[in-house]
Amino acid sequence: MEETISLQDLFKTLKKRAGLIALMTILAITIAGVVSFLVLTPMYQTSTQILVNQEQSEAAQLTNQNIQTDLQLINTYSVIIKSPAILDEVANQLDLDMSVEQLNSKITVATAQNSQVVDITVQDENPALAVDIANTTAKVFESEIQNLMNVDNVSILSPAVLKENPSPFAPNPNLNMAIAAVIGMMLGVGIAFLLEYLDTTIKDQQDIEEILDIPLLGVISPIKEEAKLEQTTSSKRRAG
Hints:
Layout: H1 2-16, H2 18-39, E1 44-52, H3 64-81, H4 84-94, H5 100-106, E2 107-111, E3 117-124, H6 127-149, E4 154-158, H7 173-198, H8 205-212, H9 225-239
Antiparallel strand pairs: 1-3, 1-4, 2-3
Helix pairs in contact: 2-7, 4-6
């Protein structure tokens, strides 16, 4: 019985404060939309792929042992790609007005599991610059790795391409507004129950029974002003 009453109270509170919950939800969606479209700077993302393989002079065919050797080198190559030895040259070739640390923050290097392919991903506010950074980084690395490690086992597999109408990958207004809707609804529900908890006024006979924990014996109906006036006039007439 207590669980049924609790559920009834729950839905009663939600129904009573439905306007507040809807207002908080709409307000959160509006704020998220304004921030996503007008405040946050669109960021574009592009990537280029390089392949780590064996030198043709060493073997005509790839063997399992050669592939394992390449996979061990990939972790080292991932560090070298983002090192000042590579990024300094990238900044010089592109005439970028940014430090190595700033350029480093725009670049992400990742590899698929058990794969010899390395992805160089670049994020920037300018889609054309992101493509230039990705491709130049790959080319500089392909050239410099011969001097740094005395090997020639890197080739560009898939260069980054500037699309005709690039779309930013962030922010995602639809996702942001959906998350804001959930947060706004949860906040509205929380405020609704808080207001209900703080509201100690007695509104009806059910509140009296719940607060005083005693049965209600009777109810005095309210007397309207017209009835009071008519009753007073009738009394005066009888008295006269």
